[in-house]
Amino acid sequence: MTWLRALAAAGLSVLLPGAGHALIKDWLRMLVFSGLYFTAVVLFLPPPNEIAAVGSLTESMEFVASEIDTMGQFVLSFIVLFAAIDATFRALGFPPGSNGDSADGPSCPHCGKELDEDLSFCHWCTTRLEPEEPEEPGESEPTAGPAEARN
């Protein structure tokens, strides 16, 4: 399931940088990558009215390919590639701590994200959780009573 999620995040990031991060609910990175991509599109692609003035979709794509320079192609490709790689690694849980390990509550044994104590499954990766059985009083060490503590 984790690999499938990582592949989906990478594929979405190739189509639109930031979309893979939205899939894994990494909202800040989603905003950063989509903002970088749209800024690069505005800076390096010709204005939309020039693209729309060309007749068909095929001619529009040829126009854009002829008008964008090598630096623009590099920047757009780099953002797409870096977003896909970053979304893939974050979906897989790299670097450690990227899955919310800093939480104080219980965490999922499968994905490591914070759990809701009321649920019997992880709402992030849908792993079924085994209920914790309380310790029986006979198994733990006997506690000293107030009279024994004074001696």
From TrEMBL:
Comp. bias intervals (Low complexity): 140-151
Domain of life: Archaea
Key words of the record: Membrane, Transmembrane, Transmembrane helix
Positions of transmembrane segments: 71-89
Region of interest called Disordered, as start-end residue ranges on this chain: 130-151
Domain DUF7575: residue ranges: 104-130
Family matches, as InterPro entries: DUF7575
Family matches, as Pfam families: DUF7575
Name of the molecule in the record: Zinc ribbon domain-containing protein
